[in-house]
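Hello Y.,

Per our agreement to keep a running log of every chain we model this quarter, I'm adding this entry. I've kept the format consistent with earlier entries: sequence first, then predicted structure.
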Amino acid sequence: MFIGHYSAAFVAATSPRAPRLGTLFVAAQLVDLAFFSFVLLGVEHMRLVPGITATNPMDLYDMPWTHSMVGALAWSAGFALLIWLWRRSSVTALIGGAVVFSHWLIDLFVHRPDLTLAGGPPPFGLGLWNYPAIEMPLELILAYGTLAWFVAKTRGPWAPVAALAVAMAAFQAFNWFGPEPKTIVDPPPPSLAILGLLAYVLLALLAWWVSLTRELKVGS
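Predicted structure for the entry above:
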């Protein structure tokens, strides 16, 4: 899942005690931001295997620091601590940390069994990536249904929201329909991780722009 992860950010952003939407976009993808950074550094590893799932060729065979449940909880706690140091609000910190951990929970539905509890077997994953007729509509409903919820609870200009929605659609389309390797690529080129990082950063910047231009409606 890609843009579906932002559903937690959109829902959380409708709370008056939550961090701003741009911060929540970072939280929603913090686990993957760390993962692609670790891939570039050689700390965690992946390879591209054609057909390993119906919609995603990534064989995520070594990611104990980011995609174990213990690892995800640690990233959540670290992010919550940073938010608390910044905002001095336990509620705001807990919301931010919860959005970070939502990444692992959502991944549990779509990943093949490559998620772990503490970095070792048994692996977990319900594998919805192998069922595009289910996963693709689910991703769009999660992402754009919660975006609509956020828009309904806020007021402000439409241009930033439209830019964010279009960028999300473009990156998701590339994720689904971009070129796939014809043979196993191990390790993948660094450009793959860099592209992922750039996508997350660009979407977070657009979400930050949205947060600057929209405010919660009274009584939302």
